[in-house]
């Protein structure tokens, strides 16, 4: 430890040695029959300038505070790295929590603001659905990595509740200081964005954001992902409608990236229709970790009457 002479002089004026030694940093000196040996606690290098081991506990003559300079230095370094760590964590927390607003891709912008508070409970059926959705939040926050399938006809509030789940998980996990990243993706919007990219020139494509790789990476990164309205990208559905190879490929890659993470899928397709449209592989991936987590939106009032969702 080298200290500049002027600083040392100032220090000398303000401080005096107390005669005590720091337990942690001292080299206690033992004199044995003219020979000097040291009991090493922790080696502090010999300070040439001071001509001694900087081990003495000092007393500030002005304030009366007593301290070991080495301990004080260590504490300062510790505090600084703690502050840096805290700032980094805070930044990460902010960024993670903002993903829901920044990375979501929606067709219907009213869904962006959907919460449990704005979900209209109109009868017993909508009440049960809301309760189930709230219980999904608890399950996600407790660390379960199930998949959820919200199945029902258009206009039953599936997308609303799916977004409400993300909104609550996002806020509550943020409050707990361990933000879970949540993103809502409309499958229809995702597929159109990816397909739009195919029409671009090579040069344009280089800077195009919404490539299939972009969505794969997002799916790989996000803790809780909603894939909204599976089947909407198929257009008019009849019993023979099949998804194109490129759509099946994209969905497969995304579901593969979701293994071990929470994925909530909304759809108005029945299980059989899903199998027919996307094949066994996607159907079985959807059922992976699903067990009893399919929520059926049947028998509810058509919520489009109140609000276009
Ligand atoms: Zn010390």
UniProtKB/TrEMBL annotation:
List the protein's name. AAA+ ATPase domain-containing protein
Q: Which Gene3D superfamilies match?
A: P-loop containing nucleotide triphosphate hydrolases
Q: Name one GO biological process term.
A: DNA replication
- Organism from which the protein derives: Vagococcus humatus
SUPFAM superfamilies registered for this protein in UniProt = P-loop containing nucleoside triphosphate hydrolases
Q: Which domain of life is it from?
A: Bacteria
Residues making up the signal peptide according to the UniProt record: none
- Domain spans labelled AAA+ ATPase: 144-288
């Amino acid at each position: 430890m080298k200290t500049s002479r002027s600083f040392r002089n100032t220090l000398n004026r303000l401080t005096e040695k107390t005669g005590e030694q720091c337990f942690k940093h001292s080299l206690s000196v033992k004199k044995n029959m003219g020979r000097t040996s040291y009991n090493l606690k922790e080696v502090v290098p010999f300070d040439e300038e001071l001509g001694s081991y900087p081990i003495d506990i000092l007393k500030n003559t002005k304030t009366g505070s007593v301290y070991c300079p080495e301990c004080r230095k260590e504490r300062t370094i510790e505090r600084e790295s703690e502050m840096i760590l805290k700032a980094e964590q805070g930044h990460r927390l902010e960024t993670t929590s903002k993903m829901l607003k920044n990375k979501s891709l929606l067709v219907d912008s009213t869904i962006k603001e959907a919460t449990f508070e704005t979900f209209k409970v109109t009868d017993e059926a909508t009440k049960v659905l809301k309760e189930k959705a709230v219980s999904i939040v608890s399950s996600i926050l407790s660390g379960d990595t199930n998949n959820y399938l919200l199945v029902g006809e258009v206009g039953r509030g599936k997308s609303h509740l799916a977004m409400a789940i993300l909104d609550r998980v996002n806020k509550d996990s943020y409050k707990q200081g361990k933000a879970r990243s949540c993103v809502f993706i409309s499958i229809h919007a995702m597929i159109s964005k990816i397909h739009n990219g195919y029409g671009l020139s090579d040069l344009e494509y280089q800077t195009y954001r919404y490539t299939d790789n972009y969505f794969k990476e997002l799916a790989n990164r996000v803790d809780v992902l909603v894939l909204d309205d599976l089947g909407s990208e198929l257009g008019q559905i009849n019993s023979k409608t099949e998804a194109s190879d490129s759509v099946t490929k994209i969905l497969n890659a995304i579901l593969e990236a979701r293994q071990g993470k929470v994925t909530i899928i909304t759809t108005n397709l029945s299980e059989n229709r899903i199998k027919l449209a996307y094949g066994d592989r996607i159907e079985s991936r959807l059922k992976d970790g699903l067990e009893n987590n399919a929520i059926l939106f049947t028998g509810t009032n058509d919520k489009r009457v109140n609000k276009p969702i």
